[in-house]
Structures are given as structure tokens and as C-alpha cells.
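Hi,

I'm pasting everything inline rather than attaching a file, because the server keeps stripping attachments. The sequence lines come first, and each chain or strand is labelled.
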Amino acid sequence: MNITLEIWRQKNKETKGQFVTYKLEGVSSEMTFLEMLDYLNEKLVKEGGDPVAFDSDCREGICGMCGLYINGRPNGPKEGVTTCQLSMSVFNDGDTITVEPWRSKAFPVIKDLVVDRTSFDKLIEAGGYISVNTGAAPEANSILVKKENADRAFEAGICIGCGSCVAACKNASAMLFVSAKISQFALLPQGKVEAKERVRALVQTMDEFGFGNCSNTGACEAECPKEIKLVNIARLNREYYKAY
Amino acid sequence: MVKLDSKIPDGPLAEKWKKHLASLKLVNPANKKKLEIIVVGAGAAGASAAATMAELGYNVKVFVFQDSSRRAHSIASQGGINATKNYKNDADSDFRLFYDMIKGGDFRAREANVYRAAEVSNQIIDQYVAQGVPFAREYSGYLANRSFGGVQVSRTFYAQGQTGQQCTLAAYQALSRQIKAGKAKMFARRDMLDLVVIDGQARGIITRNLITGEIERHSAHAVVLATGGFGTVYYLSTLAVNSNGSAALAAYKKGALMANPSMAQIHPTSIPVLNDYQAKLTLMSESLRNDGRVWVPKEKGDKRHPNEIKEEERDYYLERKYPAFGNLVPRDVASRAAKERCDEGYGVGETGLAVNLDFKDAIQSQGKDAIKAKYGTLFDLYEKVTGINPYEEPMRIYPASHYTMGGLWVDYNLMTTIPGLYAIGEANFSDHGANRLGASSLMQCSGDGYFILPATIGDYLADQIKVPKIPTDTPEFDEAEKAVKDKLNRLMSVNGTQTPTSFHKRLGNILWTYSGMSRNEEGLKKALKEIKELKEEFWKDVKVAGELNELNHELEKAARIADFFDLANLIVIDALNRKESCGAHFREEYQTDEGEPQRDDKNYSYVAAWEYTGENSDPILHKEELKFEFVTPVQRSYK
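And the predicted assembly:
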């Protein structure tokens, strides 16, 4: 199929960017979205052009490195997929596809579609862990965890840190990301000891980086490629109230 | 002249590590504060090592090419992590896990290292549980286990199909805690492009800042490579697209020996190649073979829908050929069997390069919910990639490049032949011999990172306490930086007509054809010639777009591919040298009447460690003889 791409091009952090239009022929519906961009780049390089910079690594939806705003939605029109898992089969011949980087103050653009998500690492550094030194752990089966809680902790723990939730949110809030980590530990006995300090530190850091507040719209849940649930944000709020 | 000393402690197998730990030199806490360690790569091995060494008091600098160490490809490990807890009371023990790995590796790994890997496995599970890894649980609240290929006990701990993600994030979080505490510093979006050796000791690295393009110098008292495997040399692989072998190759060129580079695991259960544009292959965890049955039609070229093919028309070839282990034979055996069936014309799907992995019987006997609880995320992943619902019809799978058992040669302390340079996790060669068993990679990475390296590195650093901070304005740093800049300038200046990726595809194709699941002398010799020609063509005609001093993925790719040529060459040289079949290394000339690999213990019971001698000369082979004191090598049989 033949498609038209409107891609955000921006040389670096300091420069102003703009949309550039590319006509791309011979796109196969069997390609993934990123393979289509690979294909575009191969073509651009051969023609002496400047390839489009975008991040990706595992290409199987688990590392969280990719993530693009496609036709006004994080990761495009299909639910429950990362950008690298999006198939071109969801598009039609003749379509125009708009591709932008994540838009959020806390994720500055580095180049083209590549953004800086260091703020997510800083959130985890603030307390997204259980403080146990190597060697200090007790026998694994001495800590019993109700299966239901282990399963729910897992469902929160599968967050890949891609930033779709922030990109989707009109307030650029990181509440879903933070709540996933808070929930994982709140549901496990191992996480209870530091629960108060953890939630205070993460919420404070979230504010410091300029992430917005949550206004319960639920766009983050709708766009999360791992389908992490809004109920985690409710749990984050409960944990936060308990911490003061 | 390099001399290999594996430094394996004397004494009974089960006592070696304990005895060694008690004899290692120590660094007192006040001195640890004065010492710096560089860790390159921060997956399950690198992040856990960095975190643990920072907890001990060392100053750790961590370098990753991704934007965050949470992206490291350990994150994609699916099925599980082994430990000898024996929670199932199925007579498991350290010895049994050790034996399974030694046998699974076709008696080409070092006994002492493998036993130690088994020995520390239980501590790893304890650590991960304490860190909040949500492993699967029974209704009683106790930890659950499952079985894996190549073994007959249930010793695998898992978090659905995302065990690697959960463990890697736990290590990442432990490292994050140390970054917050100021004991570890993260240098993200950095490519290590060279190793700096001063007076014979590893003292630093040269990196490229991938955002600004700046070439940087970093020094330390010791350097740890946790840079993973180089399966991407085959182009299509289950690895992340940016995974590469450049750090390992840089170490090799600076004097570290590369061991068994041809021991590359081709994983049996990947989603098959779907089209020419494909950038990577997606793995389907081996754990699926617990409940999935592998089959092809009994009739050649039977293109009917799999659900229309009746039970008696199906050939469950693994169960037929290997009744004792059935669908749970080790990876190398399963991969070769799939290739054999497809080569004979029984393959399924449009290309005929696929076999069925069928859950019909498991769903019938256990119910859909039970299967979903075990493999839900994997089934969803499969459906996302292929559009086929595996609850309704069989998955189609085919082997793919996955894991490198070979890697930098290390001694029992995980130190390479360059003093002060360590290699941990997949980057070293030590634990998996000629074939790796499932769920033992996360185990080895975590064992190396949490428990082994942090202890053994002290033995070296104890002699470094009087060495002040290493300056970076030395001739060795100048020289290394210049070499890196020259290489990058040269890449930019070729200005030819072909893209880096197009060369990578062709190189991968050469390796896959001649040095993949089966190899022969004629093909390997052909590969050597073709790799050489392709490398020459690359340096004459590659086109690298963009600029040096900016974010430039094309330049990153080109630099990695330039290294892949040398790595591919070494892989083929190693494969040519080993005139036997063992594990994943299947030389067609050496097979039994039944088509099983024919080992030659008399002549090849050694680790092949290669020494670099220069751009245009052949590497020198050093042999580390493998001594089997505690097990007797036998022909592997899974029948």
C-alpha cells in the first residue's frame, strides 16, 4: 500500500521542530509500524536524506523503549499494544498517518521522535524499591503471599515504563506509572515496612518533575499498552492518605 | 604469551566455593570507598552486580546504551529462573541441577563453575522475593514451580511469561536505590567503544555519548562487562535490535580471550519469519513445551488447516523420537528436529519453515483457565504478532538465534585474561557449555551479579587500595580515544551506496546458512571467504547518514556491524576448528547413525579460547582442558 506520513522532525532539544511530509510506496500490511519506519529510513538514507530518529530496542513489547504518538494516540489506534507491536494491517492504502513524539514537559524531545524519560528513572530512584541489601533476604517461603495479592501485584508490576500514560493524559500526569509501582509493593508483605516513606517520596518527586495531577479521566488506562488499571491510582491515593 | 589459569579451587565439588570464599582477600569498608568500578551493561547481571558492589561500599559507574537500565534485554526473558529449593519434593538438589546443566551443555562446561551456579541459586530466589518480585504462588501462598526442557524435576520459579522482566526490574530498582544513595552513578545512552588497558590492567573505557556524539574517557580500578550475548550477529534473532558484540570484541582486541564463540544457541520456539522486512524474531517461551505438543503432518506438504488434520494424521515427532523427554528435550535437540522435519518437506505455514505447537490436549484436560493462568501473556503476545489465537489453533514456531553460550573467557573469579577486566552473565562463556538449558540464564546472570562477582572482585581490588584515582590523561587513553575517533571518521567518510542494515542482513544470512543449526567444513570455509569479501565491500560502499556529533542511529549501527564482521569470522574459525558435534554445534560430518551429535572427548574436551593477533592474521588457539572429576561424560540421550 501507499501511505503519507506526517512526521515531527526536530534537530535537537534547542531547535524548534516541524512536521515533514513523506510519501511512502510499497508498504506491506505485514510490516510492524516500526518496520515501516525502518523501511522509510532505508529509503531516505539511500536517497541521501536524513533518517528519522526514533527509539526502540526489544521490538516485542517488553522493554518500553519505543513509544510514539500515532494519529493522535499513544501507540496508534490498536489497544493493548506498544508501538513496536502495532501492525501496519490496521492502516489502509492511501492513509495519512501523523507521527509525533511523546508530548510532556517532563519528557523533553532529544531529536525527532526521541524523548528523554530520565524523570521516570528519578521516580524509581526516589523510592520505587524495597530496601534489602544482597544477602539479607530470609528463606523465600518464609514470606507467604496470598495468591490473589501476588497476582494483582504482578498485574501492576508489569508496567514497562514507556510513558504512554503520561503522553495520553491531558495533564501529563504520571499517576498510573507511579501507582503501578506503589501498588505492586502495597500488595506484598515485603513492601509494607517502607510503604509510607515510599509513597510520600514518589508523589513529591512526581510534582518536582512537572508531571500534572490526575483528574480521573482515565485516558492513561485506555492507552496503556500493558492495560494497567485505574484501580491502581485509587490504591495510590489510599496509600498516600494513610502516609500522613 | 597468554597462559590460561582457571583458578579452580581444590577439594570436593560441594566445598569448592565455600572454601574459595573463605580464602578470598578482603577490602575493608574504608578502602572500598576509595575504589571505583566501571560496569558496562545493566541487565540482570550488570544491574545486580552494580547494586551489590555499591551496597558493599565501592563507587560504581554504570554505562548503558539504552535510555535506562530498565530496558536491558534480560527484561525479555520469559519462562523462569531455576533454583534447587526442592519445594516440590521431587528429589532435586544442587548436584542434580549441576548434572542437568553439565549434561545439557554436552559436557563442554567447567564443572566447578556450573556447580557454583547451582549452589547460589536458592539465595537468588530469596533475594528476589525479598525485593518484591511477584513470582507465581499456590493458593496456600507458597511459591509455585514448573518444569522446563532437558530436566525431569520442577524447579523453575516464574512470573507468568515475564519472569525476566520482574527480576530485571528488581535488579534495576536495587541499582536505583544505590544511585539515590550516591554510591552508583548512571551513564545512560553511552556506547562503550574501547577498553583502556594500562600496564596490563583494565583501567577504563572510551564511550560515545549517543545524544551529543561526544567521545568520553572514563577510568576505574576495575572494569566489568555485563554486555550480554551477540546473537544479533545472525541479524534476525530473539534479541533486542540494538544488542551487539562490540564491547566484548573491544576486550578481545585488547587481549582478553574469546572462548567457544561458535557455541550459539538456536532457540526452538520462536515465531517464524513472516516477511523480508522483519527486524527481529519474537521468542515463545520454552515453558510452553510443558503443555504444548509439537507436531507436523505425517504427509509431506499437507497444507490443510491444522484443526482439520486428524489425530492419526499427525506426527508428534519429539514424542516419537525421544519418548523419555518427549516435548521437553533440550533446545538444541528440539531445534535440530524441527529443522530436519522442515528440510524433509513436512513443515507447515506458507513458507514451510514452521512446525505446530498445539495446546488442544492441555486445554481439554486442564481447562482454558488453567492454561491462561500459566501462559496468558505469551498467548496474547503470540496473537498480537501473528493474528492467530493459540487457544483455538496451534501456534506455529521455528528455531531462531537466541543465546551465546560462548563469550569472553573467564577464570573461576570471573576475571578475563586481562587483570581487572571481568565478564559476567551472558558475556562470559563459563556455565552453559555447548548448549544452555531453559531458565538457567536468569539464574546465571543473577548469581554472577548478586553473589559471585561482588565477592571475587575484592580479591583483585585488595591489591589496588593504594592506587589513587586513575587519571584519564594518559597515553593509553589518548591512543584508545584516537582509535575510536579514527574508526568513526572512517565510517562516515566511506560515503558509499549501501545502508548498514543491508550489510547486516547479508552477514546474518551467511552465518545462518553456513554456521547455524548445522555446519560442515565446506560451508564454513565458504563462509570465511564470503565474510571477508562482504567486510571489504562494507568498508568501500557503506553509507552512513547524518553527522558525527549528534544522535545518529545509523552511525551506531554501522559501528556495531563493522565489529560483527570480525566476530562472525571468529565464530566460523571456532566452528571449523571443532571437528566434533556437541550441543548446539552440529557438524554434519560427525553424527551417529541415528543423526545425533557425535562428540569426540578424546580430542575436543576443551574450551577453545582465542587470542587476537591483529587485523590480518589468524587468532591463536589456547585450550583449557576440561577435567571431569565428578561426572563421567556420556553420550547425551533423551530417548
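Chain B touches chain A through 83 residues (CB under 8 Å).

If the labels don't parse on your end, tell me and I'll reformat.
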